Amino acid sequence: MKIDILSLFPDFIESFFNQSIIKRAIESGYVEMEVTDPRTFSKNKHRHVDDTIYGGGAGMLMQCEPLFDAVASVLPTKTEKDRVIFLSPAGQPFTQDKAKQLHRDYNHLVLICGHYEGVDHRVEKYLADELISIGDYVLTGGELGAMVIADAVSRMIPGVLGDSSSATTDSFYEPILEYPQYTKPYDFRGMKVPEVLISGHHANIAKWRRKESLRRTMQERPDLMKKLILSKEDKKMIKEILDEENEA
Length: 248
Prior knowledge:
Layout: E1 2-6, H1 10-17, H2 20-27, E2 32-36, E3 50-51, E4 61-62, H3 64-74, E5 82-93, H4 96-105, E6 108-112, H5 121-127, E7 130-133, H6 143-154, H7 166-169, E8 187-188, E9 191-192, H8 202-220, H9 232-247
Parallel strand pairs: 1-2, 1-6, 5-6, 5-7
Antiparallel strand pairs: 3-4, 8-9
Helix pairs in contact: 3-5, 4-6, 8-9
């Protein structure tokens, strides 16, 4: 998997590349990430990539030409395995399912970060394959969104997390929150680790974890329960959880 990020703030993106799991994934060759500054393709001697808005309006708009040229530089020949994504509040919400789909369907992602008052609409209409939003709020630019997507997609790549089961047990890999986890000490100021987790009985531990995932999702994100495909055992656990709450 290769991920190219187009940003006016390459140092900001580079700092993301040089941290933690992403850094190790790049160094190990599991994923290739690069950042390209659209200013490199500016026709202006001052390397400006923005200009006033046709029809009037406050602020400046990013020009389309530097972005078209920047995409062409990282994607000279496009195939069905390449995807150009524009980070925009008008885009579809980014979800775990979307991260899995991008990992499954594409080998190369190009993430375009907007800035200023926005970007010339021709980028959205003629250059990007799709628009993605990471939430219904306003940010200074698309850099944070690009890093969110790059991080989430990279975690899908086998080997990146080391333990092949790590990604599949994360919250939202399926629409359910992760179960509570504990480490030493066993007893901290009277707050003890659940006995089942130190029992060594793997089947009971797995059952406890599933039940607590369901409990946590029901309490914290009940909206996700509508998306979850429940097994007979899940339904039994949910009944137990509801009975326990009624007795409390």
